[in-house]
Amino acid sequence: MADTDLAARLEAIVGPENVLQGEPARRAFTGDQSWVSIVSAAAGQSLSRQDLIVKVSTTGEVSEVLKIANGSKTPVTPLGGGSGVQGAANADRGGILLDLRGMDRIRSIDERSLTATVECGVNCARLEAELNENDLRFTHYPASAEWASIGGCITARGSGVLSSKYGKIEDHVLSLEIVLPTGEVVHTPSVPRHAAGPELAQLMVGSEGTLGIVTAATLQLRRLPAKQVFLCFAFDHLEDGVAAGREIMLSGLRPAVMRLYDGSSAAGSLEKVVAAGLDGPTFVLMCDGEVPGVVDAEAVAVAAILAAHGGRDFGGEVGEKWWENRYAFYHAPHAPELPAMWATLDVVADFSHIEGVYRDVTKAIRAAAGVDANLSLGTHFSHWYPWGSMIYARFKITPAPDRLEDALALHDKIIREGTRAALAAGAVLNDHHGVGTRLAPYLGDQLGAAGMLMLTRVKQGLDPNGVLAPGKLGLPAD
Ligand SMILES: Cc1cc2nc3c(=O)[nH]c(=O)nc-3n(C[C@H](O)[C@H](O)[C@H](O)COP(=O)(O)OP(=O)(O)OC[C@H]3O[C@@H](n4cnc5c(N)ncnc54)[C@H](O)[C@@H]3O)c2cc1C
Hints:
Elements: H1 4-14, E1 19-21, H2 22-28, H3 35-42, E2 52-55, H4 59-72, E3 76-79, E4 96-99, E5 106-110, E6 115-119, H5 124-132, E7 136-137, H6 150-155, H7 163-166, E8 173-179, E9 185-187, H8 200-204, E10 213-220, E11 222-223, E12 227-234, H9 238-250, E13 257-261, H10 263-274, E14 282-289, H11 292-308, E15 312-313, H12 317-324, E16 341-350, H13 354-369, E17 375-381, E18 384-385, E19 388-397, H14 404-424, H15 440-462
Parallel strand pairs: 2-4, 3-4
Antiparallel strand pairs: 1-2, 5-6, 6-10, 7-11, 8-9, 8-10, 12-14, 12-15, 13-14, 13-17, 16-19, 17-19, 18-19
The structure holds flavin-adenine dinucleotide.
């Protein structure tokens, strides 16, 4: 239970209307968008168990709230859009859920440098719509744009569909305004490429609420493209598609969209959304830019590489339909719902390992699900780097076991076996969804004892009372 003195002190900062307590606080947020949170909430056992929700709308309020929390050793879990899928935004230790959605101002746009300074609670889709009105864009388009906040994208270290050309969120961040767990406000250097010591902004990227609150960010913008060219090629063998993708990246070409669907993903998911008959592993690509001749030339060179690796040209229509319907995958009738179980393992590796990672992770998921499960498993390679790629392996079991404990145990077994297989095959355990509680038990395997010690010392130095997001990232909770 929240102590009344604490609630009164918080009300004095943000106003009584912005502090929820007890049952209203519990009901207002039951958990993030992971299947584990959704199924637990449906069973009346919500994973987010905050005693208080505090809605803030200024950096000063965040600072004052954190000073009180730090002084009273009250856990604080930051909440952006709540669209995470790793359990990171769940206030599973009680205390305060810090609702940042009221920090939703676009503070300034610098049209000369093509940057914007925005507050952390700004919704991605809204930012994009407002920029588009001025012929600008923020080239970070997560599939969850309608729910996700800028602060959540940064602290979960996310990625968008244009990442192969424009980079992950870390490549879009110039500087940050941060409130430390003890309440001090930090402004990192105005540009990220400097030699003024380690880049403090990057320390916050992927910190998942454990090291401070990102209250505002200065972000790289771009102008709207003058031209987009869509491509779609089918392959007899997935390895040929992977080899083509590798060659595209190594040759310095940079399609903005590069999504290679394996056979079951193309047949089970892509085919339905684009309403086209597909034929085995399918590569959807899009080249964009401001100089039409350059975009055309890049698309011709990309197509030549795909064809040289055995790709059959399906024409651009499928790619264009994918682009227009890219959010449909996450809504009815295409998105999974209860009583099914679903989750994704998105892991990343270099080209020397990525095919082994694909083979071992998909095999481990199938083995862990068991022969009796009605499993569907589709995988795509959707973010490409000059050195490798990621795989996004999404499984669904219909229906999940009836008893909640059995269903959760099966889910955890699949995540455990899949993650262990990924690590053993040379992958890094996550590409863009973050760690949260789902992967927390395995971060030590990823970083090693000395790596966890380093992270723990950073945490203890910044947050001596351990109030921010306790237990997340596999960090000691006390
Ligand atoms: C259907 C669907 C599709 C998705 N597709 C993508 C995708 O394409 N790419 C991708 O990267 N992710 C994707 N995700 C995952 C999720 O949307 C991202 O992780 C997103 O970045 C989370 O943003 P959020 O604002 O909802 O954060 P939340 O879920 O609210 O929080 C995520 C983490 O960040 C912390 N946090 C939030 N805001 C702050 C802040 N201002 N300061 C400090 N800590 C903070 C939280 O405590 C938590 O640890 C998808 C999710 C769903 C449900």
